[in-house]
C-alpha cells in the first residue's frame, strides 16, 4: 500500500528577532512511501518518519501435525520484529498475529494440503517483511464403520465409510 502526499501553496510563518517572516512554499510533491510512513509537523519543523521492512524469518518448519492442526516454528529475522503474521491457505483460510517464534494453526480440514506462511511485522504493526512459505498436509481422519464380511479360509471383505475431510486413498494392513 502506498500513500500519496501532494502539497501546494503551504504557508509557514516564524519569528526571528521580533520580525515576522512569511514564507510561501509552492511545492508540487508526489512522494510515494511504503507502509509505516508518517509525516509530522510543528510550527518550527517537519519530519518524515518511516519504518523499514523487517527481514524474512528463517527455518520455518511444520511440527506436531494432527488431523486439524499444525504447529509452526521459526527463527527470528535479523534486526527487529514486533510480531509475526501467520497465514494458512487450503480448504479453509486463517490468519492471526503472534509475538512468539511458534504458532499452532487450528481448525484445519483433515487430510488436506495447506500453504503456511509466516511474515515478520515491524513494531508499528503495519509494515511487513517478505513471507516465508511451506506446504504441509494435515493427517487424515480414521475411517468410520469398519465392517468385516464374507469371511472364508483364504479371504475376507472389508467395508467402511469415508472419514470426514480428505483422503487420497486407503492402506489395508
Task: Give a short summary of the structure.
The protein is mainly β and 173 residues long. It is built from no helices and 15 strands.
Radius of gyration: 29 Å
Sheet with the most strands: spatial strand order: 10-9-12-13
Largest sheet: 4 strands, antiparallel
Low-confidence stretches: 1-35
**Mean pLDDT rating:** 80
Tertiary shape: rod-shaped
Please work out how many helical segments DSSP would assign. 0
Can you give the helix content as a percent range? under 10%
Which percent band covers the strand fraction?
A: over 45%
Q: Based on DSSP secondary structure assignment, what is the total number of beta strands?
A: 15
Distance between the termini: 54 Å
Structural class: mainly beta
Give the topology string: H per helix, E per strand. EEEEEEEEEEEEEEE
In words, what does this structure look like?
With 173 residues, this protein is an all-beta fold. The chain has no helices and 15 strands. The protein has strands at residues 3-5, 10-16, 19-25, 31-33, 38-41, 46-49, 58-63, 70-75, 83-89, 93-98, 102-105, 113-121, 132-137, 144-149, 157-161. A four-stranded antiparallel sheet has the order 10-9-12-13, with no helix packed on it. A hairpin with a 4-residue loop joins β5 and β6 (46-49). The chain is rod-shaped. It starts with a strand and ends in a 12-residue tail after the last strand. The relative contact order is 0.16. Mean pLDDT is 80; it is low at 1-35.
Summary tags:
173 residues; mainly beta; 4-stranded antiparallel beta sheet; 3-stranded antiparallel beta sheet; disordered N terminus
